[in-house]
Design brief:
Length: 871
């Protein structure tokens, strides 16, 4: 076909795509439904004009439409990677982890259940081999979330619901296409009845191989993009190449799932790029991919819809029965997961609850779309699949897709209205009336000042003021009728507003580059969690989410175990540096929220609510300050380096603002401004680099600062630094077990521990030690030592501890003080071998000051005379 004709047809399709969105909004129908209908009409019209004798004028256009080189490979290798990759870039992965159970259940378990349900139902109702039936089941298992997500967003449904559906669709596509590839291989080999166990055993291999390929490709791409830090167009170009190379590499070279590879590449880029690429480059990268995905999604849908009339040309009456079987089996399988498995997991406290109306909406919103049609087209194109199987695959997949789009898609909004998901709650309605009243009062004041400044006609001002006053009076009256909102509900609404303002502040700081994009994503995730927790749990939910934002997660604890057991300190150092920067960012954001409470929330909800929010905000700030202080004690000097970096970045932001103001005032030319901005960008690139946290250097600094080692020389400190090893413990971790003889002494570099013995409790902090008593007395300890805060311990084995004890008077004095505190006689701890001359002089001076005769020495380990004064 002539390239000019193809170009004309494609350009015309873009016009159709452009007209479809406003048409969908006007008809209040999902965008994908409109695209499908337009595509079917265009395809059916082209067939009609080619076969009719009414006119031949449109035959060239019809031939061009039907002659488009639309093949399944175009969908799978061109459009599908674009859609999947953009979906992963736009995800908030940290928030996805909160709902990973329902997402995985819907994305993986539901796909397998739907595949088996449709497959065995078709096997019972038709003469197709089980391989073909399972292949059809895999094809119709993938869902298109665009319609239901767009409607949920239009009715302001909770973000969590849209997040679950988006996460399900992303992994759903990957799982369904992986299963499709598996059963397609059996169908092409002519295996009529494959062993299900063998098929499912190969499924993890496809996933693991694809995931590793995508992860490796993304790591390499980010490394190259980081080298081209100052060349944004080069970074964008590499990002465009990444999903296609990952897909082709996994499919053609590794023999794994290309879809899984694209998903893994996108997730990896989403996670590691914020720490490696400039914030503006990330913003532009996401905007580019949003445009590419919009075009790809629309084209794949309308091009697939063009094929529907041809796929249905050979439909028979009996095929409608099989389409009904597919519909019933697919909906039943999805209903079992939504109303059977998910509530069961919620009762087991494995999965967070998903409300029944939302489950109904998810069930009816399981539309099928372009991916289903593309997979069906791939089967119909294969010369190694039997003709009858190809015919039925095309008809059943197309018929089921049309049912979901035409029946479910067009009634989805009505279903949501029937479920009441498009209506505000009574509290939200009452709040909206109060917000309108307060806003109009502010507007009236601003309009009065504006009319005075512009010296408008008094008659016009009076006339408009009267109209505005009537509206304000009605708003105030409606607000007074809603004055019965409970204080508890007002607190909840105030917390939601506060968390939303916190989110807006984070976005503003991110645009100003005061906080890095990497940390902004995490604090944005925490702000989203605050909003949802306040909405579902009120004040207690907000407080739980606030505590979680400063708590140590499971990944941090895993990094601690890697460091303690395997000596792999890099993950812990990276997470600790992230935590430092996160706490500094949180502190910056939280200190700006007080003015919002006084300026906005107080006017709407009153003084009592505002005072309570101030109290909760103060607690959050104190928690952040406490966590930050704990890190400062653990890693001396590193927090100061981060604060210096923050000051440098703030100064650069202010400098940029001044240059922009001078440029706007005409005080400098465009050439001078460009030169200054290039210099500023170079300095900003250096300021963006976060100082590296070296745990070994921090350990040496902790040793030097410890009072226990104050009398050691530099050479002895270096030897001690090589002998001591750092151990990081979280709150609640047991350091020494009761009745278990310790083999080491633990010096507390930072944090706090609790020692419990015989019903008594002692708390020890920085500069103290545990485990020395059992070693020196050679007795099994009757005490248990447990960390009560995240702590850094310096560990020394028994032999080295005894040698150190023989050289350090300060350490011996600390041992004696510790023994005295617990009622143990120090004379039972030391021998002449343990007490060097320096320590004996130190002891004699102390005894002489107290006026007590020192004890008489005997053999090693023996004591005579009166007990030690501190015994």
């Amino acid at each position: 076909m002539d390239i000019v004709v193809i170009t004309t047809v494609i350009a015309s399709l873009f016009l159709v795509i452009g007209a479809a969105e406003p048409l969908a909004a006007r008809l209040r129908l999902p965008y994908s439904v409109i695209l499908a209908v337009l595509g079917v009409l265009i395809g059916a019209g082209a067939i009609f004009f080619l076969r009719t004798d009414l006119t031949d004028a449109l035959n060239p256009v019809a031939e061009a439409i039907l002659g488009l080189p639309i093949r399944s490979n175009v969908f799978l290798y061109v459009f599908l990677p674009t859609l999947l990759f953009q979906a992963t870039l736009g995800m908030n992965l940290r928030r996805m982890l909160d709902d990973w159970v329902p997402i995985l259940v819907l994305a993986v378990v539901a796909v397998v259940v739907a595949t088996l349900s449709v497959g065995y139902a078709l096997s019972w109702a038709s003469t197709l081999p089980i391989t073909a039936c399972l292949l059809i089941g895999a094809i119709v298992s993938t869902t298109d979330p665009s319609a239901v997500v767009s409607i949920f967003r239009s009715i302001s449904a909770p973000r969590r619901l849209a997040r679950i559906i988006e996460g399900e669709s992303l992994l759903n596509d990957a799982a369904a296409i992986a299963l499709f590839g598996l059963f397609m291989g059996f169908a092409m080999l002519g295996v009529p009845d494959p062993a299900l166990g063998e098929a499912l055993a190969r499924f993890p291999i496809l996933i693991v191989g694809g995931a590793f390929t995508g992860w490796l490709a993304a790591r390499f791409a980010v490394w190259i993009m980081a080298l081209f830090r100052r060349h944004e167009l080069a970074q964008l170009s590499i990002s465009v190449a990444l999903p296609y190379l990952a897909y082709i590499g996994a499919e053609q070279r590794v023999g794994a799932s290309g879809v899984i590879a694209v998903v893994a590449a996108g997730l990896t880029l989403n996670l590691i790029a914020p720490g490696r690429l400039p914030p503006q480059a990330l913003i532009n990268l996401r905007e580019l991919w949003e445009v590419l995905a919009h075009w790809a999604g629309a084209l794949i849908f309308i091009l697939a819809a063009l094929l529907i009339p041809r796929l249905l040309e050979e439909v028979r009456l009996g095929d409608f029965v099989l389409i009904g079987v597919v519909i019933l089996a697919a909906i039943a399988a999805r209903a079992v997961i939504l109303f059977g498995l998910l509530p069961f997991l919620t009762r087991l406290r494995v999965s967070p609850a998903v409300e029944r109306p939302f489950r109904m909406a998810i069930l009816w919103g399981g539309l099928r779309g372009a991916v289903t049609l593309a997979l069906a087209l791939a089967v119909t194109e294969s010369v190694r699949v039997p003709d009858e199987t190809k015919r039925l695959v095309g008809i059943l997949a197309t018929g089921f897709t049309l049912f979901t789009l035409i029946v479910q898609g067009t009634t989805l909004r009505a279903m949501i209205g029937w479920l009441g998901l498009d209506r505000l709650s009574p509290i939200d309605e009452a709040l909206s009336r109060q917000v309108v009243a307060v806003a109009l009062q502010t507007v009236r004041e601003d309009v009065a000042r504006t009319t005075e400044n512009y010296e408008l006609s008094h008659d016009i001002v009076r006339s408009e003021a009267k109209r505005f006053g009537e509206r304000l009076e009605a708003a105030v009256k409606a607000s007074e009728e809603s004055a019965d909102i409970l204080d508890r509900d007002r607190v909840t609404l105030g917390l939601i507003a506060l968390a939303r303002h916190e989110r807006d502040t984070i976005l503003a700081r991110m645009r100003e580059r005061t906080i890095s994009a990497r940390m902004a994503e995490q604090v944005l995730s925490d702000a989203d969690r605050l909003i949802e927790s306040a909405r579902s749990g009120g004040r207690s939910g907000y407080q739980r989410a606030a505590r979680r934002s400063v708590a140590y997660g499971w990944t941090f604890r895993a990094a601690i175990r890697l460091t303690n057991r395997l000596g792999l300190s890099r993950p812990l150092a990276s997470m600790t540096a992230d935590r430092f920067e996160l706490l500094l960012s949180q502190r910056l954001i939280l200190r700006d929220l007080g003015a919002f409470i006084d300026g906005r929330i107080r006017r709407i909800h009153g003084r009592r609510v505002a005072d309570l929010l101030h109290e909760l905000l103060t607690r959050r700030i104190e928690a952040v300050e406490t966590a930050l202080e704990g890190l400062r004690l653990q890693y001396p000097g590193y927090a100061e380096e981060l604060e210096r970096r923050f000051i440098r970045r703030t100064a650069l932001r202010l400098e940029e603002r001044e240059y922009a103001a001078m440029r706007g005032d005409g005080l400098m030319s465009a050439e001078v401004y460009t030169a200054l901005m290039q210099d500023l960008d170079a300095r900003r690139a250096n300021a963006e680099e976060r100082p590296r946290l070296d745990l070994a250097l921090q350990r040496a600094e902790l040793i030097r600062q410890s009072p226990l080692f104050a009398d050691l020389g530099e050479a002895a400190l270096k030897r001690l630094g090589r002998a001591l090893r750092a151990r990081y413990v979280d709150a609640g971790e047991v350091i020494i077990h009761k009745d278990s003889p310790p083999r080491s002494v633990f010096f507390i570099a930072s944090g706090a521990v609790e020692l419990e013995s015989a019903g008594q409790t002692w708390r020890l902090g920085r500069g103290e030690m545990v485990g020395q008593m059992a070693i020196l007395t050679r007795k099994v300890p009757r005490a248990e030592v447990r960390a009560i805060a995240p702590s850094t311990l310096l560990v020394l084995d028994e032999a080295r501890f005894r040698r150190l004890l023989s050289r350090s008077a300060a350490l011996q004095e600390a041992v004696r003080a510790s023994a005295e505190k617990r009622g143990i006689s120090p004379e039972s701890l030391f021998s002449d071998e343990d007490e060097p001359a320096a320590a004996r002089r130190f002891t004699a001076e102390r005894v002489e000051r107290r006026g007590i005769r020192p004890p008489v020495r005997g053999v090693i380990g023996a004591r005579s005379g009166p007990p030690w004064p501190w015994g």
